[in-house]
């Protein structure tokens, strides 16, 4: 069995278990049905969930019965993947409720045991006081203050045993659990709805001034548009791609740069994107693209042919030189390492590619993955444009964290925005499309616009978050 098959099987089993856990939790907390289910009921329920998931996956990825690039296919994809995200979110919510409930039970048990022990001490004290006030007080006092000899058959008052019983659920506790679960469900529903709305909003245009001494000689700033991670063929189809092309054509720039993942997978009809991408207006230095990991998933040859046919200059481990007025600058593009999302941190061809970089003039490097920054910094590359992370798609505000807490931070040291290492600067774009989840929270789709100009002051720098 291949590594990909093992990965897919493992993820499928985990998702099925998450769905079952959510079902049991809803049944327990919201409908007050805490009695256990038999093994037959559990297997039957998981089996039904497995069948429904297989049907949904077929509808999403197979060209039949729902044709690609249709509203029905898009709606099914958004609903199914939102459902998966919703299940994962509810799993976290109910797991937290279970931990709170467990903590409550432990504390309650300890309090009950402490009260029981205290009650036993009070009874013993009352017994001793009563004995002292009676006629046989001295004998009782003497007996209670000395140890009995071995073999003495005289009766000794026995302490009541500690009681470990199941703690009854009070109405207050039941109400707390029910309202906590209901609040979690409402929160997750609103979160999913907001995520879908933000994911499909018009991309924001982020503008930055980049100054560098090697750009002296240009009469006006050079402008570059940067997009990445469209993922045509999953949640975005022809209608969204046409809207993106119209937005880009409405922006003036000397070049348009695409840093990979314009297509999604092997089931993506890449030929449908070609006539739309051909409508991109020509630029002074062209429309330039590099290959992302999903271009290889979609098929290396057909992805490269589609991009070339669409009018892009495809930079595959090579450099191109451009001239503007009295300034010469260079743009290089490198292929993605072709691994999955998390792996592929090393670039096998990086040394040979960077050794071929021109030694004079401003050097702009295009890479799908941001992990290239340390390598580029060692070779003195001036500016890197990258994508791949989507900004994490979900960014949670956090005190003291300028970038917030991005989901991409779980597996990558780079999430979004500006980074600097030695003399090299990198901008990591949040991207246009989505992968796995059709949600974006505090991470709207982005078109970046850079104005490159000569450095006028020694301390003039591009802002770095």
UniProtKB/TrEMBL annotation:
<dbReference type="GO" id="GO:0008758">
    <property type="term" value="F:UDP-2,3-diacylglucosamine hydrolase activity"/>
</dbReference>
<protein>
    <submittedName>
        <fullName>Putative phosphohydrolase</fullName>
    </submittedName>
</protein>
<feature type="transmembrane region" description="Helical">
    <location>
        <begin position="6"/>
        <end position="30"/>
    </location>
</feature>
<keyword id="KW-0472">Membrane</keyword>
<feature type="domain" description="Calcineurin-like phosphoesterase">
    <location>
        <begin position="223"/>
        <end position="391"/>
    </location>
</feature>
<keyword id="KW-1133">Transmembrane helix</keyword>
<feature type="transmembrane region" description="Helical">
    <location>
        <begin position="81"/>
        <end position="104"/>
    </location>
</feature>
<keyword id="KW-0812">Transmembrane</keyword>
<keyword id="KW-0479">Metal-binding</keyword>
<dbReference type="InterPro" id="IPR051158">
    <property type="entry name" value="Metallophosphoesterase_sf"/>
</dbReference>
<dbReference type="Pfam" id="PF00149">
    <property type="entry name" value="Metallophos"/>
</dbReference>
<dbReference type="GO" id="GO:0016020">
    <property type="term" value="C:membrane"/>
</dbReference>
<dbReference type="GO" id="GO:0046872">
    <property type="term" value="F:metal ion binding"/>
</dbReference>
<dbReference type="GO" id="GO:0009245">
    <property type="term" value="P:lipid A biosynthetic process"/>
</dbReference>
<keyword id="KW-0378">Hydrolase</keyword>
<dbReference type="InterPro" id="IPR029052">
    <property type="entry name" value="Metallo-depent_PP-like"/>
</dbReference>
<dbReference type="InterPro" id="IPR004843">
    <property type="entry name" value="Calcineurin-like_PHP"/>
</dbReference>
<feature type="transmembrane region" description="Helical">
    <location>
        <begin position="42"/>
        <end position="61"/>
    </location>
</feature>
